[in-house]
# Entry
Amino acid sequence: MSERMPGTGGPALNRLVTPFYEAAGRGLLVIQQCDDCGYHRHVPTDICYNCLSWKWHWDESLPQTGTVYSYSWVDRPMNEHINDGKVYNFAVVELDGITGNAVRLLTNVYDVEKDSLYVGLRVKAAFDPVAGKYASPGGYGPAGADIAATDVGPIALVVFEPLEGAAA
Ligand SMILES: [Zn+2]
# Structure
């Protein structure tokens, strides 16, 4: 797997998103799922957008695969610290195995070049560990107080790589 892009920092942690990154730290992509209607949702929220239930759990049974929905290349990083000044991409990946409306993650696709990343590319989740003592920008929004990076287990970013054998 590719190295994590240097200089991009770590995620902002709060009580809703931290388990997502901790699961990634264990090599698993999890998505919030409503206990009552079964709909998945992301980014994490307290209440189901479909049935307004407050009951939910982390679905650990997803197939860990998806399809590139959209992407963009950054040809000129804002500074030389981001990915060592080299070209990189942002991508939106639509996940497989979702109940309810599509779940799409804003992420990066690793191990691709400009001519091998395209809308419709089949990809699998990969996990890019975040150093244990990074400077978290802190939590935000209705999820409440900041969670310091030092209060959580190993975390990782969820990125994607091409599925082996994916047709071009
Ligand atoms: Zn629901």
